[in-house]
Amino acid sequence: MHAQSIDPWRHEHVFLGTRHAENERRVWLVVCLTAVMMVVEIAGGAWFGSMALIADGWHMSTHVAALGIAALAYRYARSHARDARFTFGTGKLGELAGFASAVLLAVVAVLIAYESLTRLIWPMTIRYREAIPIAVLGLAVNVASALLLGVRAHGQLHFHGEGAHRHDSYHITDQHRSSHHHDHDRLGGTHHDTNFRAAYTHVLADAFVSILAIAALTAGAYLGAGWLDPGIGLVGAGVIIAWAWSLLVSAGAVLLDAAPDASLAQAVRARVEVGEDRIADLHLWRLAPGHSAAIISIVSDEPAAPERYKAKLSDIAGLSHVTVEVHRCPQHAAAI
Fold first, then answer.
1. Which CATH architecture does the domain made up of 262-335 adopt?
2. pLDDT in tens, 147-186
3. At what angle do helices 20-48 and 128-149 cross, to 10 degrees?
């Protein structure tokens, strides 16, 4: 058999999110903006002798690192998308980057909590006139970063109690398959971009801390409630840890090849299990945002060719790589 004769059965394993290029560009812009702000704060703090500026600048450096991981993950995934070493492409690199970003986010929260506890036990004199403008400037930078990342991120972030919830429901009709998004599945759906969500969460966390800081510093300056600054710092740390845990759960589930969604399995079974055809073994996992893979073992009295079953699944959006193996039912085979 000539190599050319199997070309129709060959295919690439390029599984990248539909907004991969757009997300990459926006994250790089936010990295640059955050890095410039970090340098300005550290340099300004050294020049004016402000420890508050220097501390906030180094705090921002952790977000630069996390955002840089997200940006580099996009670039690496894109440039190595056709690298044969990656069996199912580079789509999961975003999940790995998101997991690393979540760890960094948790570290930042722990550091904030430690600093807040220290200041509750040993109060420090706060220079409100200097600190409030710094917090306002930090909030402005984070608002600008959020705008650069785009309002689309709002659809990927839903924080309820223990973390983010996401669910993709696959509804079967005779003509087509449609998907809706409901916020009930802690493992996350098949379409959201965890890497982008992690970058946005870092920006959101920084903005959240800035808002709390402005409120606490204003209360301290005009009401004399200096304890509010470290107190609200503890509250902020707790919320950020919850967000970090949500990211860890979502990214970790994909990295461990957890099934994307129960309704996707139901959709596959509804298409395949017709007549005497039954699914003996079904493996579903996510390859990248908007891409899932399936390995299906089918048992039947009168099995069809694998291509027949693949055709039944061809219009399930997001099911990008399907492997089918077919077995004749042992009892029926023995009777023959």
1. 2-Layer Sandwich (3.30)
2. 888 655 544 444 333 333 333 433 333 333 333 333 333 3
3. 170
